[in-house]
Design a protein that fits this description.
Layout lengths: L1 H11 L22 E7 L2 E6 L4 E8 L2 E9 L14 E2 H6 L2
Antiparallel strand pairs: 1-2, 2-3, 3-4, 4-5
């Protein structure tokens, strides 16, 4: 889905649906990112990352664990207000 979005952005001469770095929910990643919480439920594992309001979801496959989605909370830097509604990577990349 990311490759398709990249191709759309190139064709449009700018940005398609994704306008930030999706793995760390950032424009300019910096510093250290630690996993601060993990929940495993059957074949799905969700990991909360420090420094960003993001949850990385992985699913068990035949070859191990693979990323399946990323969930975002879009707060301002001071965490006092929302800059955008919460969303997830699959939904963002599924938009026409």
């Amino acid at each position: 889905m990311i490759k398709r979005d990249d191709a759309r952005a190139i064709a449009a001469g700018g940005i398609a649906n994704l306008d930030f770095e999706p793995y760390l929910n950032s424009q300019d990643p910096e510093g250290r990112y630690d996993v601060v919480r993990v929940e495993v439920n059957h074949d799905v594992c969700r990991s909360w990352l420090s420094q960003r309001d993001i949850i990385a979801e992985t699913k068990r496959s035949d070859s191990g664990w693979v990323f399946s989605n990323f969930y975002y909370n879009f707060f301002s830097e001071d965490h006092k207000r929302k800059e955008a509604p919460d969303d997830n990577l699959v939904h963002i990349l599924s938009r026409p």
